[in-house]
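sorry for the late reply, my laptop died twice this morning and i had to redo everyting from scratch. anyway the thing you sent over, i finally got around to it. pasting the sequence first so we're on the same page, its 325 residues, then the predicted structure underneath. double check i copied it right bc i was rushing
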Amino acid sequence: MPKASSKKPAPKRTIKKWGSRLGLFSLFLFVAATLAAGVYFMLLYPGMSPKPPIPQLSGQAKKKPLPQEGKPLPNRQVPLYEEPALPHQAPPIASHPKKPGGTSLSDRPLVAIVIDDMGYRQNTGKALIALDLPLSFAFLPFTPFSEELQKEAQARGRDILLHLPLEPVDPKWNPGPGALTTAMDPETMTALFQEDLREVPKAIGVSNHMGSRFTADPQAMRTLLSLVRERNLFFLDSVTATRSMAYDLARTMGIKTERRTVFLDNDQSPDKIMTQLDLLIQLAGEHGQAVGVGHPYPATVEALRRYQTQLHSRTEMVGVSRLVH
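ok and here's the structure:
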């Protein structure tokens, strides 16, 4: 008979110890393999990595024009629109009968178009300045492209205005940096007006950005118009409120002035803007002259490109400084 083996079976405790170590080692290998696979797929397919959710715009925000692409805008960003007041209604305007021999070089009515809110939109601003039309340009203070665009407008001999931010009736409409308010004392208003004017050093006139509350306040307007008169500037009333007294008060104070006749691009459609241009020419024919106000929107550029032949043939286009009186 063969001899029985003299080896004793391994103790159960030793078997358990090795089994435990093998399990931990297997777990380590699994975790390492999982991490390696994750890194591999992230490097190989970067587009599959999770993306942050896209912020959703409110209904109101979707209606607002977006800033022009280019340099980043400052934190104190001004919305590129006027208050939603008097969208298409032409304010009462006085007739300006032609003097003997005519006030223009022809029998055509005088028309000026002022582009407000200049300084934030670089490409559309350049496109408007480049048009074969003697447009006038009203620059907001403290804007990223203001200096560059002012130089281009000046080089083409265009009228340049300070588009002065003034207090609106509804506080939800932010007029932006440099805004004057009715609560300011004369010293504060003077200091801020001087800062704003330094931002548009070639300005030959001032127009109001927003300002439905401010232009209806006689004390605030008298203080502002005194500053305008001291610097030998004119004042263009954008008429953002039916109660605006800016035009009448400026006339009383002996300041050269005029007021907006038609807003051109509250509806940002080239066809609708051209309809407003028709209205502008009609009113100019009735009253001798008229002032249209537009904004640096792509639709406005397109409408003016398509309509410029009519503007040249049906009107005498001039800078707004020709129309103040």
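The radius of gyration is 33 Å.
thats about all i looked at so far, will dig more tmrw
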